[in-house]
């Protein structure tokens, strides 16, 4: 039996042993559950992935909420050959997600890091936290479609009222169903991380010695506050201080700093409000009375779920044609979202002509058009996953032309944008994966837009991350209270707990930023020298493939593994 086959057998045996509530350091009586999940990821035979939940009731003043929202959840990745008890791992990365982001977004970097550390002789774990608000999501349709192998299983469930696993989709939560999230802001988010760490690692010395705290995007700023927080409000007792729960910090296209993630440099160009609103949301400029950030288009529960469905379509049938597009609901939210993301110029956005849905494209090309840095207009949603092929392309001029001045703001990434030039004709747009650019199938003018050094994420791996994990990649219900609190963090209401202003400076830090990532402020850490990773966009720091086009191993996970084993 070969080594890969042995790993698969070990993974299967371990999964059976863990089951539900089977982690050796917690009894079933305390309400903890842990369930492994299957994955087709390249390193699935070397890394065990599981979803863990623990009981954590919210305060009564929060108000009525579903029972499942009185629990905390996270995804846990660990080596097949490593200890089953987290307390016996050499290091544990604990990651806070970014805006509109769930735990599933960390799948690739987590697996790559676990394996990279194992090559160094260390057993590390990677935990990705899920925010409370994600308890309202319904992943039944996606998970059922993975089991049946039919994309219709998911779309019938979400779009046509079909039953799946004994339930029907109840629609997207709003009004009274999300009102309780008005009380779930920065303080509760920090408390959730603290309570989860104490539950899973009850020995405070283990937390202080082994846990590395960090995150992606907004998660870096949350981690900054966590490091400076005092959870009992008594500055003389340090065991409960945030920095005492960590031995170091890591930042993935973010900074570890207790401040608001305000935009750095420049102002937004003159673009339509429907396009400007997601940029405001990503930088914390959108606030209001709504408990959940749901914009009229582009960013709302329906559209973020569509990203999971786009990934599912690729996961089930990469070369299938328009599987999601042909099944999309016909409503203003979806129509304007498609125009905002995919219109090639202002006229197409304003008139809807040509109709975006008339494009003939494979499922891979559809997902690529939505998230690739050569198409997706918003920098905080970009990954470098290859390039479109099969028919002519042209410069994408909407929402702004790809000028040096515009790209230098960091709001729109650093890659020039391309758009399909032919709609409604007998042509089929396909997708070149990250390791297929500059090949015989490439378009003649591809070099104007991209090159192998700037392509780092496999579209197949991105699709898996969007659809396979039991906790979502995209966040349906982002609580508005969280960015509001970050913007008002100097308010007197935080003074009781925001005490240890040197909390970040007390431990070593690793900051990894994409060369095409978002513009970021300085962290203020005395030893912070950000490592800029060439070719990476904002999402690539989470999703990049284990091997780059030049044959080198993936640099973000290598740096994390080095950091953990120093």
Strand order of the largest sheet: 1-2-3-5-4-8-9-14-15
Kindly report how far apart the N and C termini lie: 35 Å
Radius of gyration: 22 Å
Uncertain spans: 1-27
- Mean of the pLDDT scores? 90
Estimate the global geometry from the Cα principal axes.
globular
Strand percentage, roughly? 5-15%
The secondary structure category is alpha/beta
Helix content: 25-40%
- Overall strand count: 15
Number of helices: 17
User: How would a crystallographer describe the biggest sheet?
Assistant: 9 strands, mixed
What attributes characterize this protein structure?
single chain, 566 residues, alpha/beta, 9-stranded mixed β-sheet, 30% helix, disordered N terminus
Task: Please write out the topology.
Blueprint: H1 3-18, E1 33-36, E2 47-55, E3 71-79, E4 91-96, H2 107-119, E5 124-129, H3 140-148, H4 151-160, E6 163-164, E7 167-168, H5 186-200, H6 204-210, E8 211-216, H7 218-228, E9 248-252, H8 273-282, H9 301-316, H10 332-342, H11 346-351, H12 363-371, E10 387-389, E11 393-395, H13 404-407, E12 418-420, E13 430-432, H14 459-467, H15 481-487, E14 509-516, E15 531-537, H16 540-543, H17 555-565
Parallel strand pairs: 4-5, 4-8, 8-9, 9-14, 14-15
Antiparallel strand pairs: 1-2, 2-3, 3-5, 6-7, 10-13, 11-12
């Amino acid at each position: 039996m070969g080594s890969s086959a042995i790993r698969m057998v070990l993974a299967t045996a371990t999964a059976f042993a863990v089951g539900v509530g089977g982690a050796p350091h917690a009894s079933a009586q305390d309400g903890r559950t842990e369930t492994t999940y299957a994955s087709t990821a390249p390193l699935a035979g070397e890394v065990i992935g599981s979803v863990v939940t623990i009981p954590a009731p919210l305060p009564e003043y929060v108000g009525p909420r579903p029972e499942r929202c009185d629990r905390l959840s996270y995804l846990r990745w660990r080596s097949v050959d490593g200890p089953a008890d987290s307390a016996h791992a050499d290091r544990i990365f604990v990651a806070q997600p970014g805006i509109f982001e769930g735990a599933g977004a960390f799948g690739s970097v987590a697996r790559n890091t676990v394996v990279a550390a194992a090559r160094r002789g260390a057993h590390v774990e990677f935990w990705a936290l899920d925010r409370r608000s994600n308890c309202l999501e319904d992943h039944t349709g996606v998970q059922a479609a993975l089991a049946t192998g039919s994309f219709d299983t998911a779309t019938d469930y979400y779009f046509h009222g079909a039953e799946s696993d004994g339930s029907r989709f109840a629609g997207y939560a709003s009004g009274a169903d999300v009102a309780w999230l008005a009380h779930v802001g920065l303080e509760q988010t920090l408390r959730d991380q603290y309570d989860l760490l104490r539950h899973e690692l009850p020995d405070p010395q283990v937390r202080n010695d082994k846990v590395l705290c960090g995150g992606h995007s907004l998660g870096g700023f949350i981690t900054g506050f966590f490091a400076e927080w005092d959870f009992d409000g008594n500055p003389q007792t340090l065991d409960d201080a945030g920095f005492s729960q960590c031995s170091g910090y890591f930042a993935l296209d973010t900074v570890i700093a207790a401040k608001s993630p305000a935009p750095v440099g420049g102002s937004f160009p003159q673009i339509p409000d429907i396009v400007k609103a997601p940029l405001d949301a990503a930088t914390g400029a959108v606030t209001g009375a709504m408990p959940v950030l749901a914009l009229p288009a582009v960013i709302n529960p329906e559209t973020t779920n569509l990203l999971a469905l786009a990934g599912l379509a690729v996961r089930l049938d990469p070369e299938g044609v328009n599987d999601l597009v042909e099944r999309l609901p016909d409503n203003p939210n979806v129509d304007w979202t498609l125009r905002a993301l995919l219109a090639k110029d202002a006229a197409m956005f304003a008139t809807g002509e040509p109709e975006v849905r008339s494009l003939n494209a494979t499922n891979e090309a559809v997902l690529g058009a939505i998230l690739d840095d050569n198409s997706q207009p918003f920098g905080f949603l970009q990954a470098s996953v290859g390039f479109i092929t099969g028919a002519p392309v042209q410069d994408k001029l909407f929402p702004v032309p790809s000028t040096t001045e515009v790209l230098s703001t960091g709001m729109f990434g650093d890659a020039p944008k391309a758009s399909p030039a032919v709609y409604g004709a007998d042509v089929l747009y396909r997708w070149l994966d990250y390791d297929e650019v500059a090949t015989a199938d490439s378009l003649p003018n591809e070099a104007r837009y991209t090159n192998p050094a700037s392509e780092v994420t496999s579209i197949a791996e991105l699709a898996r991350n969007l659809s396979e994990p039991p906790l979502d990649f995209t966040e349906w219900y982002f609580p508005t209270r969280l960015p509001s609190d970050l913007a008002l963090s100097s308010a007197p209401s935080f003074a009781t707990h925001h005490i240890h202003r040197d909390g970040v400076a007390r431990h070593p830090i690793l900051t990894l930023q994409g060369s095409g990532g978002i513009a970021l402020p300085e962290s203020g850490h005395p030893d912070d020298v950000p490592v800029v990773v060439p070719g990476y966009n904002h999402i690539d720091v989470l999703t990049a493939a284990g091997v780059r086009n030049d044959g080198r191993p993936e640099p973000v996970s290598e740096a994390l593994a080095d950091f953990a084993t120093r």
